[in-house]
Amino acid sequence: MLITCEQMRRLEAAALASGWTEDGLMEAAGRGVAEAVRALVARPAAAVIFAGKGHNAGDAFVAARHWLDAGWTVVVRTCFSQDQWRPLTLAKWSLIADRVSPEIPGAGRLMLVDGLLGLGAGGPLRPPILEACRALNTLRQARHATTVALDGPTGVDFDDGTTGADAVVADVTATIAVAKRGLVAEEALNHVGRLTVVPVPALEPAPAEAGTGLDLVLTPRALRPLLAGPRHFDCHKGQAGRVLVVAGSRGLLGAARLCAAAAVHGGAGLVTLAVPKDVQDTVAASLCPEVMVRGYRSWPELGGVPADVLAVGPGLGRRDDDSLVNWLAAEPRPAVLDADALNALAARRLAGGEAAAQAALGRPGRLLTPHPGEMQRLLAAWQPALLGQPRAIQARQFAQTQGPALLLKGARTLIAAPNRPLALNTTGHPGMASGGMGDVLTGLIAALMGQGVEAHAAGCLGSWLLGRAAELALAGGQESPESLRASVVIAHLGRAFEALRYSDL
Q1: HEC per residue, 417-486
Q2: What is the pTM (predicted TM-score) of this model?
Q3: 21-25, 60-64, 208-212: the lowest-pLDDT one
Q4: Looking at the 3D structure of the chain, how many domains does it have?
């Protein structure tokens, strides 16, 4: 769920009333932040903490103690004299004061920690916090450093996401216990970066209260119940899901290969790739060996191919939109529709084929996965009044009105379905801004649906897993944001599944 600062204060007050101490809460938060950073940030040579005077700095000092114990170098830059610090913050500083380094290393990986202002600090930034934010942002640029914000970036309003001049630009925001509403606002996106929720059970809402939220921030704890359970020992490939990938055309075969390979790595028991007959031999010669290839000349031929779920669209090209839409309208099986399948639906609707297009859209078990451009075409065809509206409104209202589950891609991928919470994914990084990532997502989601996961849940799982796999690809040190490619992300899906099962971060 998403909460306001006032709601968070009430949760803190309730925890203290139940017997928790401020010291206990700070220790839990700081330890969680330390673990979150180790899970998400690739091997920093040194951590530089920019500390204010309040409990946000205290949380940072607790995290620093754990990093020091793990062998990290820690440097601290303070804004206020110690006689202005909160007593608990000063106590946590005393535990690390003789272990911190006086100077920032001149070379190597650097992590900057924003521990300047915490929950509910509003209004324009003022000295000395203003100068500290500027120094932090300048150092990030100069050293290509990774910035981690504790609870939220200084200068960003936690309630509405408004961002002041010189607000901290974070690569990772480790927010405590529950995501704050302003941290997922579109205007805050480039200051928040990767949002991770640090579990602190004492500060989490009761299940009844959590269930009233309209929005769902995807975390491992929220997603784990959606993942298919352990397979029976005598499970065979036919029980692990049959996926039919309908993708690819001359010049666009890479999308088909990526989609099919992702379905294999997503756990599908049997994957068949259907391609036009004239490119069948070409694609078969360069496809991963676990995928079967089927050539076709017309869409209805594919009705006889055994499959529990379809993945239709990557690299399909624009040929005979009318026949494609007619086939999708008549095809009863669940399907993930992407790329040119979406473009064909929008074109058919605009050309007057409303009945067929709506039938193809509204079949049970349909999930649409548009990128922003494809979403604009869908809106122009079905709901032009939503053009120009915020992405969350577009996704929620389109799904509610038209019927299918919808995954709207972006730095904060949104997953919507009728009468379901709007889900916001937080995993991933800018290194995913390269061709083929959407093709991988389509195949991965189809594999999940083939294993019995319903469409909305599969969209939530798939978006989180794809982003986490991309993060893990960088964590190994062999890849950078510039070098990362979709096929490498596929290779890390196994580790992403394991992270989902066994980690809360």
Answers
A1: CCCCCEEECCCCCHHHCCCCHHHHHHHHHHHHHHCCCCHHHHHHHHHHHHHHHHHHHHHCCCCCCCCCCH
A2: 0.95
A3: 208-212
A4: 2
